[in-house]
Amino acid sequence: MKDAILIVGCGSIGERHLRCFQRTGREEVAACDANAPLLQRVAQQYGVASFTDFNAALAARRYDGIVICTPAHTHVDLALAALRHGAALFIEKPLSTSLAKVDELLDAVAKSGRFTAVAYVYHLMPWVLGAREFLRSGELGRPLHASVVTGQHFPTFRPAYREIYYTRHETGGGAIQDALTHIANAVEWLVGPTTRLFCDAAHQALEGVTVEDTVNVAARNGGVLVNYALNQFQAPNEMTLQIHCEGGSMRVEGHEQRWSVFRRGASAWEHHKAAPLERDDIFIAQANAFLDGMHGKPTPLATIAEAAQTLKFNLAALESACSGKAVEIA
Ligand SMILES: NC(=O)c1ccc[n+]([C@@H]2O[C@H](COP(=O)([O-])OP(=O)(O)OC[C@H]3O[C@@H](n4cnc5c(N)ncnc54)[C@H](O)[C@@H]3O)[C@@H](O)[C@H]2O)c1
Questions:
Q1: pLDDT for 28-71, tens place per residue?
Q2: CATH code for residues 122-274+303-328
Q3: Distances (CA, A) of 289 to 119, 181, 184, 261
Q4: Which of 17, 33, 78 to probe ligand 1 with, by most ligand atoms within 8 A of CB?
Q5: How many of the other CB atoms lie within 10 Å of CB of 191?
């Protein structure tokens, strides 16, 4: 029998998850969204059962997995209810907008025995996975210094940015919680958790909002010095991450879909390019990974504990940008 999956929140990313879970052909999907006209359109388009109320959806039947795709400030309460229902849990990033109830959630996850993960999608990008595998082989020795330069023209990729959660920090908005969090989580996955950071951020360009769209962070991830430069108005959609180690350097270029290595003594980069992928391909791989995890198989997905650590990065960055001081992360 196919697994039953409920998608909660069928806006931009929820609809993508619905479509990509369906594309795995491994489960029966139902949809829930408080916005009735939107839900009706999605239910018709994808031919799925639909509910405008989360509790009514839970009462209607038992789900094996619940995918939470609502704005970030609602994630933890919905996740706790989903665990009480007995479902495996997949939560969109960021885990939340504060640490309230996060320990309660971690405790409930441990007691539930259910598979749980957070949808930090860089974990499914072959160029990040390849770089991580190589880094962990230890061939280049200890990572010492990392830097990320990244950005995109947000209005092109998310034309509705003025009307969604993005407009306020309280609902998960701004460049730190919306975009930088992906990169910070990927860097933590590659070189370990952030322990200290200084953040400078400002609203530089995006029309119709006041939240920061440009961020610089100088961080320490234990013994690794890391810096990030990100904006959401530049023309090219690019992400370049470099990690310099004792025995050479590594580079991940998201826009080239490749990772590269430059060993000490070599004269050129050695590139490892992934087969061309469309955006949905990565989300289909992510859906498959979640379904694998539900069935006890290993997956590269971010754990809730890792996402809680990245949530501390987000909150420290917001605090530092506000105070002008460096922040230690416990
Ligand atoms: N992984 C990615 O690449 C990626 C991309 C975009 C967004 N996100 C994340 O996904 C989340 C949602 O983002 P989005 O862009 O889809 O937002 P969105 O505003 O397009 O959609 C959110 C939907 O949730 C619904 N909703 C809110 N509260 C609800 C509730 N209690 N019950 C049922 N429905 C409810 C809203 O009606 C809305 O349709 C955010 O946390 C965001 O950071 C991740």
A1: 999 999 999 999 999 999 999 999 999 999 999 999 999 999 99
A2: 3.30.360.10
A3: 10, 21, 21, 27
A4: 33
A5: 22
